[in-house]
């Protein structure tokens, strides 16, 4: 087992994670994301409390009913599913659905991975970029919500309605947290792209064999 000194100086985690860094460099990303996800969902109170005897979160509460009704059916379904599950953000769409929405001009795709991931792993051509966290140790970007809001404000707004934003990360974990942060900041039409760019790890500790943007044969490029 590697010693704690083998960890990056700013990793901010225990030496037990060193094994993951050594065996699979980017696996460390998802360890941090999963840990953060658990902490957020274990300790952070829901936005709206005890409606009809249960907690309920309405991440689309700032969007008028007429606009929600005008959204693509897949987005309406995502919203309904998110509400049923009590998710603190608008909902999720699959990579295939995300690409169809982007191609039809109904949404913009924002990559929330690090600049290093985009450069060395690959990216979707034409996607925008706001990092949820930076560097190999995934230092949280404290300006994420502000940077996303500024980026979205520059996008065309159909009929003065909010721009629909789809967030993409490596496997769907960071983008879910990013969508939650966006909803807290008042960006209601921000959705998560499930599966992410590379997909989840399989039994062989490999990605891209069962799900993810690249697995579905969707367009991407590499520097």
Automatic annotation (TrEMBL):
User: Would you indicate the residue range of the signal peptide?
Assistant: none
> Where in this chain does the entry annotate a coiled-coil region?
none
Q: Give the InterPro entries listed for this entry.
A: Rhodanese-like_dom, Rhodanese-like_dom_sf, Thiosulfate_ST/Rhodanese-like
User: What sequence ranges are listed for the domain Rhodanese?
Assistant: 103-209
Give the matching PANTHER family: RHODANESE-LIKE DOMAIN-CONTAINING PROTEIN 15, CHLOROPLASTIC
Provide the protein name.
Rhodanese domain-containing protein
Organism in which the protein naturally occurs:
bioreactor metagenome
């Amino acid at each position: 087992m590697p010693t704690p000194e083998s960890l990056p100086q700013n990793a901010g985690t225990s030496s037990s994670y060193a094994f993951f860094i050594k065996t699979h460099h980017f696996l460390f990303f998802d360890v941090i994301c999963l840990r953060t996800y658990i902490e957020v969902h274990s300790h952070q109170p829901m936005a709206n409390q005890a409606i009809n005897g249960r907690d309920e979160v309405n991440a689309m509460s700032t969007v008028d009913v007429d606009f929600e009704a005008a959204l693509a059916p897949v987005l309406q379904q995502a919203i309904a599913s998110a509400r049923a599950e009590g998710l603190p953000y608008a909902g999720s769409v699959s990579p295939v659905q995300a690409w169809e929405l982007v191609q039809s001009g109904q949404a913009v795709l924002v990559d929330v991975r690090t600049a290093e991931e985009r450069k060395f792993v690959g990216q979707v051509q034409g996607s925008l970029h706001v990092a949820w966290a930076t560097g190999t140790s995934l230092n949280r970007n404290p300006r994420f919500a502000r940077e996303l809001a500024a980026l979205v404000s520059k996008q065309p707004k159909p009929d003065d309605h909010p721009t629909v934003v789809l967030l993409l990360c490596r496997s769907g974990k960071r983008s879910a947290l990013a969508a939650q942060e966006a909803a807290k900041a008042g960006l209601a039409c921000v959705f998560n792209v499930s599966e992410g760019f590379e997909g989840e790890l399989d039994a062989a500790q490999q990605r891209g064999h069962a799900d993810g943007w690249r697995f579905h044969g969707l367009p991407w490029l590499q520097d």
